[in-house]
Amino acid sequence: MRTITATRYVTPLREGGSVPAIIEAEDSGLYVLKFRGAGQGIKALVAEIVSGELARALGLRVPELVLVELDPALGRAEPDEEIRDLIKASAGLNLGMDYLPGSITFDPTVGPAPEAAEASAIVCFDAYVTNVDRTPKNPNMLSWHKALWLIDHGASLYFHHAWDDYLERSQSRFPAVKDHVLLPWASALPEAEATLRQRVTADVIQHVVACVPDAWLGPAMEPRFATVAEHREAYASYLLKRLEAVSAFIEEAQRARAQLV
């Protein structure tokens, strides 16, 4: 992943719990900035990187993710005290996502309906990373140039908020899939399962987990881990173990879909 420096704070995006913002960076590009000082904390940024890059490995569309160095002085002209405090608390390394100008939030009631293969791939991916935040109320998908783009994966991988028995919990059937916004169109789940098994390999998992900055791992962030390497390996172990549950969570998705269609 690239690391860039924010050069201009453009505007806050007053939606969602993390209150992201649009910033301009040294490369003159615009990015949606996810703050390390937001309520969800750094674990949400870790989930954004790991899940976002896994989605990319599966061939799904995700805006480019970058690491962003933030100088809190960039927010000095922001009139909202809460926003200024958030920027101050987020000094240092944050996460940015390429801004897609003119994109709109996907609305399942408006359409167009996604293709079965794409809908199934997204449902399968979200079940794998236990993403509870792709619902009709909050789809976290953008329509841009007549294509679906996946955003906002901070609520995925929720196992890392409590590491006790995390390998056992990797076997979850993910019953929350019943609320997935694309489930009605996901008629090709067996094919999506085969693709996930083929593309999410041990090497891919190691590569994705390696994208997480050292500064976001280790005993300072999670006292149960003595080193950054141990913390990083725990993520990789979970994701590898999660692959053993693919048949179970695909079966759960098929069962839930059968009740809808």
Using brief descriptors, characterize the structure shown.
about 260 residues, alpha+beta, 2 domains, five-stranded mixed β-barrel, three-stranded antiparallel β-sheet, aminotransferase, Aminotransferase class I and II, HipA_2, transaminase activity
How would you describe the overall organization of this protein?
This protein has 261 residues and is an alpha+beta fold. The chain folds into two domains: 3-98; 104-148 and 155-258. Helix content is 35%, strand content 16%. The chain has eight helices and eight strands; from the N terminus they run βββαβαββαββααααα. It has helices at residues 41-57, 81-89, 116-128, 166-169, 189-199, 202-210, 228-242, 246-258; strands at residues 3-12, 21-25, 30-34, 65-70, 92-98, 104-105, 141-144, 147-150. The strands form two sheets. Strands 1-2-3-5-4 form a five-stranded mixed β-barrel. A hairpin with an 8-residue loop joins strand 1 and strand 2. The longest helix is centred in the first third of the chain and has 17 residues, at 41-57. It is globular. The N and C termini lie far apart (41 Å). The mean pLDDT is 95.
